[in-house]
Amino acid sequence: VRAVLPAAVGAGGGIPAGIPILGAWPQPAPGPGEVLIRVLAAGLNQADLMQLAGRYPPPAGESPIPGLECAGLVEAVGGLAEQSAGASFAPGERVMALLAGGGLAEFVCAPAAQVLPAPPNLTFAQGAAVPEALVTAWTNLVAEGGLLAGETVLVTGATGGMGTMAVALAAALGAKVVAAARDARRLESLYGLGAAAVALLDDGLADRVRGLTPGGADLVVDFVGGEHFPRALAALGAHGRYVLVGLMAGRAAALDLDAVLRRRLRIAGSLLRPRPRPEKGRLVQEAGAFALPLLADGSLRPVVDRTFPFAAIVEAYAALAGGGAAGKIVVTMA
Ligand SMILES: NC(=O)c1ccc[n+]([C@@H]2O[C@H](COP(=O)([O-])OP(=O)(O)OC[C@H]3O[C@@H](n4cnc5c(N)ncnc54)[C@H](OP(=O)(O)O)[C@@H]3O)[C@@H](O)[C@H]2O)c1
How many other β-carbons are positioned within 10 Å of the β-carbon of residue 196? Predict the structure, then answer.
């Protein structure tokens, strides 16, 4: 099958690591509890760029092909797949799947519990924009962040693929959402996803949050870190929770320990990809149980910035690496 070859293969033959190339790869066969999916669209993620550059190997035993999410049609079902928690699929069914790798290929296998039915109102490109963003948002807002309806949550990097879904999901969960990013123009569109306020990632961030909720935010879900970490932390109220999810602005930051002590803050970090399959399956099923009806009635919408044909994978990754997208970048196979 046609696939984005793993960095090590791509690096041979004089192609520098980090430049994705398409080539032939064996078609995977579904093992027990797995679903073979004919991929019709796949979402691109920052993790793919790190993997292609040789800095983020896939978890042991998972496909070396990049690609953390896809949408497509069920081609075949491995033994016992129909018995997996909450998941029963038949050939031809429209699905979307969270993957540990392998999505940037014409076929991929996924554990059945990591596969969700794709609502008929979504195109395959929109479906491919859902799994990683939805499950990351759910994991960090709900499972890690403990978000409750009525609470105030600050989402940083809110204009990106993860951020747009986190804003929309938090609003759907009944939270007051402050969406923060560095581009004022794209921030405005986040009101349409349910943000109660938008804010630039600058020294006015904490004031902007306190303008909405005087005590400060209950939760920060931070996709950028780096120099913005102290600003995000300053926006938290007493007993505030902070979950670090991404490092778009860098891995080093100053931490005001006195603020942590006095406001009794809790600081956590979270990675989805290396979690064991059963844990991921549970998160997918929980997120799906909440979000599928909302996706189906249009009240929760994946945000696709642009789609590229699979043959233009180099241009698609260049667009992701270049930044400035509003939402997800997706490639389509058909
Ligand atoms: N921990 C996990 O389990 C997990 C799961 C999924 C993703 N992630 C991570 O989450 C992060 C966001 O992923 P994504 O898919 O949303 O990426 P994305 O679509 O490329 O969006 C990135 C967001 O970060 C902003 N940003 C980039 N560089 C910045 C900087 N130097 N300062 C401030 N903001 C900056 C972007 O703003 P502009 O558009 O203005 O550049 C955009 O809002 C990535 O680091 C990714 O690896 C983590």
Answer: 17
